Amino acid sequence: MLNGVWMTLDSLDVSPAFLFISLPEEISHRPSRVTFSDCKGNDKLHYEVSSPYFRVNTDGSLVALRNITAVGKTLFVHARTPHAEDMAELVIVGGKDIQGSLQDIFKFARTSPVPRQKRSIVVSPILIPENQRQPFPRDVGKVVDSDRPEGSKFRLTGKGVDQEPKGIFRINENTGSVSVTRNLDRETIATYQLFVETVDVNGRTLEGPVPLEVIVIDQNDNRPIFREGPYIGHVMEGSPTGTTVMRMTAFDADDPATDNALLRYNIRQQTPDKPSPNMFYIDPEKGDIVTVVSPALLDRETLENPKYELIIEAQDMAGLDVGLTGTATATIMIDDKNDHSPKFTKKEFQATVEEGAMGVIVNLTVEDKDDPTTGAWRAAYTIINGNPGQSFEIHTNPQTNEGMLSVVKPLDYEISAFHTLLIKVENEDPLVPDVSYGSSSTATVHITVLDVNESPVFYPDPMMVTKQENISVGSVLLTVNATDPDSLQRQTIRYSVYKDPAGWLNINPINGTVDTTALLDRESPFVHNSIYTALFLATDSGNPPATGTGTLLITLEDVNDNAPFIYPTVAEVCDDAKNLSVVILGATDKDLHPNTDPFKFEIHKQTVPDKVWKISKINNTHALVSLLQNLNKANYHLPIMVTDSGKPPMTNITDLRVQVCSCKNSKVDCNAAGAPHFSAATALLLSLFSLARL
């Protein structure tokens, strides 16, 4: 590695050739210089070096600007005056095995060149600064062919000539001078790979193509830019000095191997500038932003604003005044930690609530200096004493952070007129180790229960009684009982009927005796599943009076008070039917078993000669009516008597109308216009289907 070594070539003419330079680790040398002559006094002589790590001074001395790794490094030294220009390529091949001064090294390079393939076309890389101004076209280099046949021409090809972007470079086909037609942008294309060849008058290649590299020399024409914003960093309050907050890095499109893209960072402005105008520092090379104040100054609760905005500047040219700059804003949030415990605004709170009422009765207020958006501020309340019956609960109001104390089970003034609760408050987040909850984190709540006139209460509720239906009017069912919870008040209770859907009941307003005003009917539409429901009121003598409601459920036992009835009551049969079955009869009864089936079916009397009709039992609920002989077409009325199994039994007689119809050619004529007609066989099938579903 070499740092600041001055290397000179004494009396060495620069020519388009390769010079191999070996750099030893330690060099002692005599001054040497690069010499160039345009044979006209070298007026306005200018040197350009392809590497940013070297510079050639106007006196020809070659300077290494910083530590470099020598092995494998290739340098192009370009010398130019208004009258002539030339270039030399220097290759550094290492130096541990070569000792002596730079003068000896260059002598070695001159006398021991690396063998090269001989060619007549001689080209050297062309170095062109970007952003050159007019005039254009401008000569930038020259190709030499010492053995070029007479009449042959130079031809230039490649990207930038006959490939996009076309027309940037061209060559004088006779002299070999290479020119550029417009200014170049290194950030668009850094190098161009061109090819030179000689061709005859017919365009056939005589020699080549030989590669020609055009290197665009960078200029500092791009400002640093911050591309990854917005930049937001967080640091915990009380953090130690030197805590890294965030990193900000900028991008520079210039050549990263030059100072044109070597960036340095600094803080241009801090807002706010309290408690110190220098709360933060940025590493000029890395872009790391760190705290520089003591932990005591980094206290979120004492800061005017926990948010700081820094204007960060990035400057190229390693921060020199000539460098270009770019800025961005860094926002730094001072995050809260739980270093303040919540404190009640007072030690005791008062609340008043009516007995029987529920809901929020008081809001407990606390103060906490921490950030309201964090768990270090949000409060959590706990009842730690005075709530054995779990009649109270407390929850946090998320907007105000207050503790909302609620009654969740009705309070009874007659049991306790006063309650005292001990409540503590904590944060959702744990406190930092050096902070604890003190006496201000607990408070006492005194609750006064107000007496109200409570409604009388029936006991039991519901009240239940079982009675037979059809008991005599005026029968006593029961005596209801209601008590007044206001045991400390002397009040009387009066009773009344509230809901009696069938109008069957009456209640004594003084003693609560309930009797009947009508017959109870289990089969009434007001009775459901043999239960009749009625409601009664008990009203005390308070001011204002309070009323309680009680429910009476009367279970009605069945008696045989409903006769059975048959279905259907109409049947049809053909006058020439071979099957003399007429209809299957069914019977039903509104009463309950055993006051229903088995039913007894009989023909009460017949209006035609005996032995014409017959009824036969099928099962407990059905019987078959049939003919013993065919009858003439007519309508017949047959009285059917059905009797249930109750004690005593009940009987019902119903006329069965049988239509004997004419059935010919699949037509049924019963002289019943507009009525549907079915054959006897169809009627029988329908009856059998009905029987099968029972």
UniProtKB/TrEMBL annotation:
Domain Cadherin: start-end pairs: 128-226, 227-344, 345-458, 459-566, 565-678
GO biological process: adherens junction organization; calcium-dependent cell-cell adhesion via plasma membrane cell adhesion molecules; cell migration; cell morphogenesis; cell-cell adhesion mediated by cadherin; cell-cell junction assembly; homophilic cell adhesion via plasma membrane adhesion molecules
Membrane topology: Lipid-anchor; GPI-anchor
GO cellular component, one term: catenin complex
One of the record's GO molecular function terms: beta-catenin binding
InterPro entries in the record: Cadherin, Cadherin-like_dom, Cadherin-like_sf, Cadherin_CS, Cadherin_pro_dom
Subcellular location field: Cell membrane; Cytoplasm
A Pfam family reported for this protein in Swiss-Prot or TrEMBL: Cadherin
Keyword line: Calcium, Cell adhesion, Cell membrane, Cleavage on pair of basic residues, Cytoplasm, Glycoprotein, GPI-anchor, Lipoprotein, Membrane, Metal-binding, Repeat, Signal
SMART domains the record matches: CA, Cadherin_pro
Described function: Cadherins are calcium-dependent cell adhesion proteins. They preferentially interact with themselves in a homophilic manner in connecting cells; cadherins may thus contribute to the sorting of heterogeneous cell types. May act as a negative regulator of neural cell growth.
Subunit structure: By contrast to classical cadherins, homodimerization in trans is not mediated by cadherin EC1 domain strand-swapping, but instead through a homophilic adhesive interface which joins two elongated EC1-EC2 domains through a region near their Ca2+-binding sites to form a tetrahedral, X-like shape.
Name of the protein in question: Cadherin-13
Organism name: Bos indicus x Bos taurus (Hybrid cattle)
Gene that this polypeptide is encoded by: CDH13
